[in-house]
Amino acid sequence: MGFERQTRINNYSHMNIAIVGVGLIGGSVAIRLKETKFCSKIIGVDKSEKNLDKAKQIGFIDEAMTLEEAIKNCKVLILTIPVDAILQVVPQILDQVTDQVVIDMGSTKTNILNKIKDHPNRGRYIAAHPMAGTEYSGPEAAVAGLFKGKMMVYVEAFRTDEDAFEVTDAITDQLEMRTCFMNADEHDVHTAYVSHISHLTSFALALTVLEKEKSQGRIFELAGSGFESTVRLAKSSPDMWTPIFKQNRENVLEVLEEHIKQLQSLHDSIASEDYDKLHKLIKRSNKIKRIIK
Q1: Does the predicted TM-score (pTM) go above 0.85?
Q2: Which of 105, 151, 155, 168 could bridge 131 with an S-S bond, Cβ 3.0-4.6 Å?
Q3: What is each CA distance from 143 to 49, 58, 172, 181, in whole angstroms?
Q4: Low-confidence ranges of the chain (pLDDT < 50)
Q5: Which contacts of 207-210 are long-range, i.e. CB under 8 A and separated by 24 or more positions?
């Protein structure tokens, strides 16, 4: 371990961190911070007593508290709850903080940032989106290496106090993530195209096949690795993803319209038996290899 990294750990090892939402993302953050002994205590906050009990049983939180208690007893609050819940609670949290740092790890940013842009404690807040996840949810889904090598997007970080950003960046360092900076609109557009559409496509494919299963009950006997990898995101939590689509509605509709247009082109080329056109469309799609190795 490098001297600089060890120094950063020592600087924060005395503080308490509250994880608000002890599911996949929050739990995975907590497990990693436990591994690196980054902080003194990890406090869990969740509306589900069952989730809190499970998180304590797994061992990635030390104590469960209410949100109000956690604010009084921690230096950092990490919000890993659905984005509609973040939108609701962030102003109340900022009303109560003094020198605490509030890190929002939600998947959409524009509406949340607009809501708190004039709050007197805006500087204690940082919008950060870890581009990592799985199709599973709940405390049991949390894993230690979820974030390694993935991207942490800081959104409008220039509005965050310097010391609050330094704490957040130290946590990102513990998670072994890369970093980039964006404004809110840019972030929400990009995530609609690289994340949100993937989930919508998977949900649609699952619905399509489930509908066919009603009349062809053995259809899943033929499902191979290609089908599984394409449809696995359909197992994702509706409690998490419905608010994301709601908060990022305009961008999601834009990407859906383009996706439907491309599906229509594939449909029309097959319907008209224009296989030259179909070949060209597939070949054009192969250019994605420049982005995804």
Answers
A1: yes
A2: 151
A3: 21, 11, 16, 26
A4: 1, 3
A5: none
